[in-house]
Design a protein that fits this description.
There is one protein chain. Helix 1 packs antiparallel against helix 2. This protein has 154 residues and is an all-alpha fold. The termini are far apart. The protein has one domain.
């Protein structure tokens, strides 16, 4: 009987140990489950932050691409305006150069006309003077009328 008692006692102790083991195992499972849930929550939070960061980065890259396109377009327009402005200034300079050349040609012609006129007047005065000198030597009476005709006396 002692054996029966011993066997009952062993079974009871095994039951207590089994109950304790089950309780410990349940606690371990609860703790493990809690840690898994915390790890999943942390992973989900990190994944959300990563998606948000990637979205922000994507938006920033699109904005940078847009700004680069706008800048390139503005630079292209500025270059076109500069080329057009230079072309206009070149055309204007060519017109001014043509006007200056025309003015120079006109001035040369004018000076030639004036010079010819002066030469003609000097030549005619010389001719008048020669006539006066000749008249003085040959006909002193006509001298006064020749001088008046030449504009020498009033």
């Amino acid at each position: 009987m002692q054996r029966v008692k011993q066997s009952k006692e062993n079974r009871r102790q095994k039951g207590e140990i089994s109950a304790k083991a089950k309780a410990v195992a349940a606690g371990v499972r609860r703790n493990a489950s809690k840690r898994v849930d915390e790890a999943r929550a942390g992973q989900n939070k990190l994944a959300t932050e990563l998606r948000s960061t990637l979205g922000s980065l994507h938006a920033a890259l699109e904005e940078e691409d847009h700004l680069a396109s706008v800048l390139m377009e503005e630079q292209e327009n500025a270059m076109k305006e500069a080329v057009n402005s230079l072309s206009e200034k070149y055309e204007e300079a060519a017109k001014v150069q043509a006007r200056v050349k025309l003015l120079g040609d006109c001035m040369r012609q004018h000076f030639q006309v004036v010079r010819s006129h002066i030469v003609d007047q000097v030549g005619s005065k010389l001719t008048d003077t020669e006539e006066i000198v000749h008249a003085i030597h040959i006909q002193p009476d006509k001298t006064l009328s020749l001088i008046r005709r030449a504009g020498g006396l009033s």
